[in-house]
Amino acid sequence: MTETTVVHLLRHGEVYNPAGVLYGRLPGYHLSDNGRAMADMVAKSIAGRDIVAIWSSPMERAQETAAPCAEALGGLEVILDDRLLEATNVFEGKNLVNAMFRDPRNYWHLRDPRRPTWGEAYLDVVARMKSVIDSALKAVPGHEILLVSHQLPIWIIRLAAENRRLWHDPRRRQCSVASLTSFTFEDERLVAVGYTEPAAILQKGNPLAGA
Fold this sequence. Notes:
The protein has one domain: Rossmann fold, CATH 3.40.50.1240. It is globular. The C terminus is likely disordered. Helix 1 runs parallel beside helix 2. The chain is α/β, with parallel strands linked by helices. The chain contains 5 helices and 6 strands. InterPro entries: His_Pase_superF_clade-1, His_PPase_superfam, PGM_Phosphatase. It comes from Acrocarpospora corrugata. One of its GO terms (molecular function) is phosphatase activity. This is Phosphoglycerate mutase.
């Protein structure tokens, strides 16, 4: 008998970031009021599904997104996993526009967008995201699992799963805040990739808000 397992990758909700910095892995960045409302809306959308486990990036914004989902699913424990962390980036803590385009000293970091040279290599992101998905498949065979992560890791593993090139225009990522990218497996074979936006009504139209 074939076992169908679904791995849902949930991007965290909107973050309070009035300075517009690239916060990456910096601590202290939490969901905005709107982001908390997004998390609640996602939780309502998945209540009743056969989700039997929740794993989350250790970042505050990811844990805060996971919390209402865990409650909606009967009080599941949220397991923290470093493999779901945001990608590293040399521009962390800086205003992205100013750092990338208004300071010539930073141009060296932009020399090869295919790797990319400003942060964690795409192939490394694929490796750790594939590792956590493989672990999820072994943990909940025949059920569903929710993994809460960040935009770039989710988008990169989707590109890899769909055999598309990894280097891309960040403005074209289909991975809005509080969105779900769902991988359906038959046994360990990927058979479908789905994408939904349960909190679309609360989005402000900026796909890069709160990476």
